[in-house]
Amino acid sequence: MNVTFICPQCERTTRSEIPLESSLLACNCCQHQQPVVTNSLETDSDPARSKLNRCLICGNTELFIRKDFSQRLGLLIIIIGFTASSIAWYNYWTYTTYLILFGTALLDLVLYSLVGSLLQCYRCHSQSRGLATENHQNFDLEVHERHRQQAARLAESSVATDKLSGSVTGDHVNIPVANGPEKT
Known about the structure:
Blueprint: E1 2-6, E2 13-17, E3 24-26, E4 33-35, E5 41-42, E6 51-52, E7 63-67, H1 71-90, H2 94-114, E8 117-121, E9 127-129, E10 137-138, H3 141-164, E11 167-169, E12 174-176
Parallel strand pairs: 7-10
Antiparallel strand pairs: 1-2, 1-9, 3-4, 5-6, 7-8, 8-9, 11-12
Helix pairs in contact: 1-2
């Protein structure tokens, strides 16, 4: 099983290959040992049939299926196809224009069918590869928005708590909050 997660110690994204029976994830950058959430995995004799019930990192039960393909690479393919077909169209090469557009669409279809799927957590965005995905759904914008709004409210409440305590904290900088004129 392969897991990509953000290390809570060094806050870097790391990818670890771990056995199914492991109870710890190790960060490749700082060697921090992240414990795996208990009862999150139903193991099977075939690793590809093992099921993930909850996120290994945060324990969230809401996971979604997505293709294990770089979105940047997909966008690059589309931009190259669009640019090449625009140049051909500008030079009045009509058949070449359509050939480039259909070739780009065919390449997209082939890549879509060849690339596997992964499970991603809505809350912590960790990714798990090499597991069965049949008990999970595709991306749901409503669930994603709920988790995004919850994270925004938590961040806002922590800033409000910092203001009430008398200082606003930034990146290792404490800025005192003025309470009015000082009396001497």
